Amino acid sequence: MAEFSNPNQKGGSQDNGSLFILMAVMVVIFFGLQYYKAKHNPQTESPAKQAASSPTQTPAPLPTATAQLGSQIGSLGGQTVTIPAVQGTAESTTTVENELYKITFSNRGAQATEWILKRFKDVDGQPLNLIHAEAAKTVGYPLSLYTYDAGLTASLAQALYVPSATGALTAPANLTFKYAAGGYEVTKTFSFDESYVLHADTLVTKDGAPIRSLLAWPGGFGDQADAMAYAGSQLDTSTYGKEEHVAPKKISGGNTLTGPFDWAGVSDLYFASIFLPDHAETSTVATLETQFSVPKVAPPSRNAVDTRPALIRWFARVFGHSNTTTLDPVKDYVKVPLIGAALGDASGHTKTRIFAGPKAVDVLKNIHAADPKVTLEPLLDFGFFGIIGKYLFLALRAINEHVSKNWGWDIVWLTILINLIILPLRIKTMQSGLKMQRIQPQMDAIKAKYKNLKMTDPKRNDMNAEIMELQKREGVNMFGGCVPTLIQMPLLFAMFGMLPKVVEMRQAHWYWLPDLSAADPYHILPIVMILSQFLVQFYTPSPGVDPQQQKMMAFMMPAFSGYMTWNYSSGLALYWSVGNLISIATQQIMNQTSIGREMREIAAKRARRKGGNGPQTIQGKPGKR
């Protein structure tokens, strides 16, 4: 739980400065994360510099699938060679299945037309097809071949290959597709095991000589339902163990990046298609990008039945989240970059493994590149506070495995645990605040001695020196009240970077929340967040702070927290809201202790003095109110 107010503020300009320092740090970190993300996603290298070294083929169009079978004549090194034609006569499919996926291949293009992940669901509650079905009709299907000639690429995607098997295969298995016509020979062999990884061996030759062809995942994933999901996509590469993540707006279609690559591919928030070449040193990557029209917000499930409670349905009507919402093809759609990647070997003969599955920590850390020291774990990028986010997630997962089995309750339990750990710091903070209040009259007297000095007068340094000496003599730490906040702020921003990116949170339910990785569709938690943040400001003592500044902070911080959670991960809003409620309860209890009562009495006495009632003497120890 993020606590922004300092319960031990000092009086005068230093007190006011502390408030603004904390606020400024919060804002700087928030917007600094955006800058870090842009900085961390560098522009891909332009292919113009590599045009000379990238062999571009301009062959004659391949014969169509209905071309007459026979022998094709080519020439190689001045000698005549005979290349037997190999073509399919009709379209057929082959499915390969294990416990994790079911992939359907078509012999047209020898490419995957369906890639079902059995352990994940789409928005309609059906097994998730990892292939973006609509996009594939435009940009092509996964495991198609990309060449530097658009005509050849299109011909290879439409040709009818001859498969080594049709029907259903169960992993471990091998599947080979062959095609030969017009002097071209194409061989694509895929090997499958029990994991999310398969191996591909592809070769395209012209008159017996290899030509540059790359294995492609042309663009998009089946879980991308709205513009926000596409914004989370990126090009991911690793070179000598150093990873890079490139945002869609920084990718130009057709760029060629030269290796070495430990791994390279594309991903969205939760899923990825990554190539792990057998020969990293000679691998190259072509970046693919197409403008695609998508809904601004995810359309409602076609199969959903509205079984929500009446109160939730009322919130849905008020805030525009009806299950019967229809999308206007003009107003409700926006153009976004759809990114893809193709990997090949400079020799023309491509051998690579392909990971296509969830960006889950346990899965990624067990997938190694050709260099066994390099894994896919860095593919899951939690941002600037990623190391903290990683351990927070591991803590959440441990709670899920041993305590509640529900990710929403896991967040609640983790929030309680964090607040219990920092409780001693809260108590120390309150004790420090009491000491500060006790010496406040002496601090005011020191400031009064120098009140007529200008801010630029060097003698003001003497004032600060006297105040610091007083605090040191009385055992007061001027930054004592900031410690809990400084501890909790990194936790908050780590949650901010982690919760929307872990696949375990995707479609994780908690009461009215259908997906903890997405925003609260009814904005209930953000409203609770705003109200609870206001109460945190109200109940947390801030002695010596100017009343006008107290009022300003009382409204600014709730507004800021509401803005952060309104359209963001509901898991973050849950963490923050529960933390606020715990903070309110804790502060209420602490306010009833002897320290709390004394702090309130000192604050009231100071307020009466400022109100012109003159100094009053308290007889005896103040009692409980």
UniProtKB/TrEMBL annotation:
<comment type="subunit">
    <text>Interacts with the Sec translocase complex via SecD. Specifically interacts with transmembrane segments of nascent integral membrane proteins during membrane integration.</text>
</comment>
<dbReference type="InterPro" id="IPR001708">
    <property type="entry name" value="YidC/ALB3/OXA1/COX18"/>
</dbReference>
<dbReference type="Pfam" id="PF02096">
    <property type="entry name" value="60KD_IMP"/>
</dbReference>
<dbReference type="InterPro" id="IPR038221">
    <property type="entry name" value="YidC_periplasmic_sf"/>
</dbReference>
<feature type="transmembrane region" description="Helical">
    <location>
        <begin position="379"/>
        <end position="399"/>
    </location>
</feature>
<feature type="region of interest" description="Disordered">
    <location>
        <begin position="606"/>
        <end position="625"/>
    </location>
</feature>
<feature type="domain" description="Membrane insertase YidC/Oxa/ALB C-terminal">
    <location>
        <begin position="407"/>
        <end position="591"/>
    </location>
</feature>
<keyword id="KW-0143">Chaperone</keyword>
<feature type="transmembrane region" description="Helical">
    <location>
        <begin position="478"/>
        <end position="502"/>
    </location>
</feature>
<keyword id="KW-1003">Cell membrane</keyword>
<feature type="transmembrane region" description="Helical">
    <location>
        <begin position="17"/>
        <end position="36"/>
    </location>
</feature>
<dbReference type="InterPro" id="IPR028053">
    <property type="entry name" value="Membr_insert_YidC_N"/>
</dbReference>
<dbReference type="GO" id="GO:0051205">
    <property type="term" value="P:protein insertion into membrane"/>
</dbReference>
<dbReference type="GO" id="GO:0032977">
    <property type="term" value="F:membrane insertase activity"/>
</dbReference>
<dbReference type="InterPro" id="IPR028055">
    <property type="entry name" value="YidC/Oxa/ALB_C"/>
</dbReference>
<keyword id="KW-0653">Protein transport</keyword>
<feature type="transmembrane region" description="Helical">
    <location>
        <begin position="411"/>
        <end position="427"/>
    </location>
</feature>
<keyword id="KW-0813">Transport</keyword>
<comment type="function">
    <text>Required for the insertion and/or proper folding and/or complex formation of integral membrane proteins into the membrane. Involved in integration of membrane proteins that insert both dependently and independently of the Sec translocase complex, as well as at least some lipoproteins. Aids folding of multispanning membrane proteins.</text>
</comment>
<feature type="region of interest" description="Disordered">
    <location>
        <begin position="44"/>
        <end position="65"/>
    </location>
</feature>
<keyword id="KW-0812">Transmembrane</keyword>
<comment type="similarity">
    <text>Belongs to the OXA1/ALB3/YidC family. Type 1 subfamily.</text>
</comment>
<feature type="compositionally biased region" description="Low complexity">
    <location>
        <begin position="50"/>
        <end position="65"/>
    </location>
</feature>
<dbReference type="GO" id="GO:0015031">
    <property type="term" value="P:protein transport"/>
</dbReference>
<dbReference type="InterPro" id="IPR019998">
    <property type="entry name" value="Membr_insert_YidC"/>
</dbReference>
<dbReference type="Pfam" id="PF14849">
    <property type="entry name" value="YidC_periplas"/>
</dbReference>
<feature type="domain" description="Membrane insertase YidC N-terminal">
    <location>
        <begin position="94"/>
        <end position="287"/>
    </location>
</feature>
<keyword id="KW-1133">Transmembrane helix</keyword>
<dbReference type="GO" id="GO:0005886">
    <property type="term" value="C:plasma membrane"/>
</dbReference>
<protein>
    <recommendedName>
        <fullName>Membrane protein insertase YidC</fullName>
    </recommendedName>
</protein>
<dbReference type="InterPro" id="IPR047196">
    <property type="entry name" value="YidC_ALB_C"/>
</dbReference>
<keyword id="KW-0472">Membrane</keyword>
